[in-house]
Amino acid sequence: MESFTVLFLTALLVATGVQLWLALRQINHVAGHADRVPAQFHGRITEQQHRKAADYTVARVRLGIVDLVVSTCMVLIWTLGGGIDWMFAFVAPWFDDTLLTGTALLVGVMLIGGLVGLPLEIAAVFGIEQRFGFNRTRPITFITDLVKKTFLSLLLGVPIAAAVLWTMDAAGTHWWLAAWALWLAVNLLAVWAFPVLIAPLFNKFTPLQDEALAGRIAALLGRHGFAASGIFVADGSRRSGHGNAYFTGLGASKRIVFYDTLLADLEADEVEAVLAHEVGHFKRKHIAKQLGFSAAIVLAALALLAWLATQPWFYSSLGVETPGTAQALLLFLLAAPAFFFFLSPAMSLLSRKHEYEADAFAAENADGAVLVKALVKLYRSNSATLTPDPWYSAFHDSHPPAPLRIARLEAL
């Protein structure tokens, strides 16, 4: 067994083991605190609501364990199990062109991955979400969404995959710089296209009809120089009882979206406070910082891939006997997460820091006490756990744990 094979297996098994350990910690910690509402939430969250949130969290983490085990097995099958070679042997006779063969290889792996993950998605929607009263997706809607997602993935994914492979072959030694520029362009295009072309395929968006609330929002945005093309309400209640709100788009396509479920839960001043938090991300340039951080990681990853793709041991150590551009890209995408997983705490820490900063902005420019009321309502309506395991949270949570977040807001 080659040394890199041992290194890869070690990284994969350690990363999987750590994730299983964290998941079991989360289950035990949440279940162990399910009968006691944290003191600062007394009178805000009932014991029954707290118990439901604990049970919901435990159910989701247990399903996540199944997903983790399946994903790890699939990585081993595709790599050391010879799955990539098998898929290449299957698609190669269909095409005479190397680029088309490589693209078909990528698409084939993607489609099989989607099929393997489909039962887990069904279990999440019609099992867990249904059992806890959140699912409102009818089977016909689920099937229609699946068809749309598959069509979009092929429509967008095939040209992008072909463009990446062509760049890797045609752009010379420093192809990774061209591929990085392509990555940036695709991401910016996706941010622009999502609100105007993609999102309307899945949700109906209507302008916010509440004139008083619209006026409050317009005044808040105007005070902070945030220009948006409109304020819209999405019919999220067609699929789920969870509430959400977000900024989306780029330039003239930038818009604010509220799910109808969120508007049904919150008062006007609470919606304004939540939006002030989102404006805080804009004013503190968090989106630009996160994009810059991601761009730096992608650039380093592509440079590493450019070197690995020239090393024969990279292919043989990971179970591939027929080296090629598509094979190199696939192997990197499959193997890299085992190594990059250990960056998770740093990335989660950065995200939580940004959430605290956005909360502070909202407290300064709206009403911190009202934001606390809104967050408590969202925790309650979404059955978010109030007692996550600290280690699990450090690795996985992009937002601060509820008690810490509320305590800091109340201190402000």
Task: List the main descriptive attributes of the protein structure presented here.
single chain, 412 residues, mainly alpha, 16 helices, globular
Give structural notes:
This protein is mainly alpha-helical. It contains 16 helices and 4 strands. It has helices at residues 3-32, 47-78, 83-91, 98-131, 139-170, 175-198, 211-223, 260-265, 268-283, 286-308, 312-317, 325-340, 344-365, 368-381, 390-396, 402-411; strands at 205-207, 231-234, 245-248, 255-259. A hairpin with a 6-residue loop joins strand 3 (245-248) and strand 4 (255-259). It is globular. The model has no long low-confidence stretch (mean pLDDT 93).
Tell me about the biggest sheet? 4 strands, mixed
Strand content: under 5%
How many individual helices?
16
* Strand line-up across the major sheet: 1-2-4-3
* Overall average pLDDT: 93
Intertermini distance: 58 Å
Radius of gyration from the alpha-carbon trace, in angstroms: 23 Å
Order of helices and strands: HHHHHHEHEEEHHHHHHHHH
Helix content: over 70%
> Which shape, going by the Cα principal axes?
globular
What's the total count of β strands?
4
Strand-pairing-aware structural class? mainly alpha
Instruction: Report low-confidence residues grouped into runs of 5 or more.
Output: none
Short structural description:
The chain has 412 residues and is mostly helical.
What is the topology?
Blueprint: H1 3-32, H2 47-78, H3 83-91, H4 98-131, H5 139-170, H6 175-198, E1 205-207, H7 211-223, E2 231-234, E3 245-248, E4 255-259, H8 260-265, H9 268-283, H10 286-308, H11 312-317, H12 325-340, H13 344-365, H14 368-381, H15 390-396, H16 402-411
Parallel strand pairs: 2-4
Antiparallel strand pairs: 1-2, 3-4
Helix pairs in contact: 1-2, 1-12, 1-15, 2-4, 3-4, 4-5, 4-12, 5-6, 6-10, 7-9, 9-13, 9-14, 14-16
